[in-house]
Design brief:
This protein has about 100 residues and is of the alpha+beta class. Strand 2 and strand 3 form a beta hairpin. It is elongated, with a radius of gyration of 16 Å.
């Protein structure tokens, strides 16, 4: 599975950027989106920055990735990870 994760630029040069998520740092290839200033959120897929993200998009993707990780650990209460979605358990019983 190729999962994109949000990462924040902490230092940048012309072709790469050191990015961080939850204390993990990776050097990403920035050639698809160009150089980005420190603080920019990007979607990282296989050590390449694929898209510039708004902070809210980064937060939502990070929560969804956390939900997937929780599901893979066997957790079943996942509503909190997807607060931006209208899940059936959040809507209530059918009428």
């Amino acid at each position: 599975m190729c999962l994109g994760i949000p990462m924040q630029v902490v230092e940048s040069d012309e072709f790469t950027a050191l990015c961080e998520r939850r204390g993990e740092q990776r050097r990403l290839n920035m050639m698809l989106i160009g150089p980005q200033p420190v603080g920019t959120w990007v979607l990282a897929i296989m050590d390449h920055a694929r898209e510039v993200l708004a902070p809210e998009q980064a937060r939502q993707i990070d929560e969804a990735v956390s939900g997937l990780e929780a599901a893979l650990r066997g957790e079943t209460d996942l509503d909190g990870f997807f607060a931006d979605l209208q899940l059936p358990s959040a809507i209530g019983p059918p009428r």
